[in-house]
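Hi support team,

I'm filing this because I wasn't sure whether my run with magnesium ion finished correctly. The job status page said complete, but I'd like someone to confirm that the output block is well-formed before I use it downstream. Pasting the exact inputs I used:
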Amino acid sequence: MKVTISVIKADIGGYVGHSSTHPEVVAKVEEYAKAGVEKGTLLDASVITCGDDIAIVMTHTKGKDNEEIHKLAWDAFVAGTEVAKKLKLYGAGQDLLADAFSGNVKGMGPGVAEMEIEERKSEPFIVYFADKTSPSAWNLALYEMFADPMNTAGLVIDPSMHDGFTFEVMDVYSGKAVKLETPRELYDLLVFIGATSRYVVRAVYRNRDGEIAAVASTQKLSLMAGRYVGKDDPVLIVRCQSGFPAVGEALEPFARPWLVEGWMRGSHTGPLMPVSFKEAKPTRFDGPPRVIAAGYQLCEGKLVGPNDLFDDPAFDDARNRCALLANQLRRQGIFEPHRLPPEEMEYTTLPKVLEKLKDRFVDIGEPEAKAPGSGEGEIHE
Ligand code: F6R
Ligand code: MG
Ligand code: MG
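And here is everything the job wrote out:
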């Protein structure tokens, strides 16, 4: 049976500040998701949260980019926003950038990750959900899951994975994407996905048969809105087992924390902390960034789950190391590299401060040079 898994997420109000969601708002979103199942639009739905973001995990038979499915999620978020407004929650409706729904939530604020699959004899998959970071936070994890045999033993041992995987990589500024096949083009892939401020892995396919293996939300909210409206707090769907990474191989990259962009005011580098659902409430300096892993088994399109996969003491060491990294980085305060470089700060509230000081810069006879990076990163022309 062909099933589409659609995960659509948004931040529609924080409790308190940007740290978490309010149970009444989540209950309202759940009510809409449940109604979608009762009406028969959806096969099943599951609502999960991470920090101040809510995701609706939906299964159905209508394919990707389906108007009815996207509208259902949009309506749920609009209704949730009304509750958030009533409670005067912080940033109520902040990710709903458009006034009215028009065909597809893409470009309207919410993040989307969707895949259409033929349900296997047993179909385990994981929905990763992060708060206080951007879609490129998945780049390193996806590389390790699907291209690094030091992480994923199956790339060496399992004949159905041995041909490797192909990564689709998007340039968030041009909106163009390139497909690169590993292991053959591994080094080309790393040129791009190591540059996390610009390139984002959108999807991963199995080389042997072209099967979809993973899909991420790649929307860059600040580019859509033209101003800082929160980092994009991405979702990622990864299929597991029997020719895909084992659940444990898909979780393993998170046991060795790395640094991502986001955290306070979307302006800082910080460790991505793998946490249980209960611990997905970033409060220290509005962080550090969190990730949860919601595991499901598909059963005739029904969602058996979620199972809280980072709720395992084996990840305690990663969490402790994130706390230590957080201490070390906080020592740098507003100084780079804890604070992000100027190119990234362009999409925060900082340009408003710089605007005021622009005319105070005077020529002192030094030659002019282009700012490094994009060439458009000059902050005081
Ligand atoms: C980061 C985030 C928070 C806010 C910060 C300031 O993604 O959402 O760190 O940027 O709390 O928020 P405002 O400007 O709304 O007071
Ligand atoms: Mg927020
Ligand atoms: Mg958030």
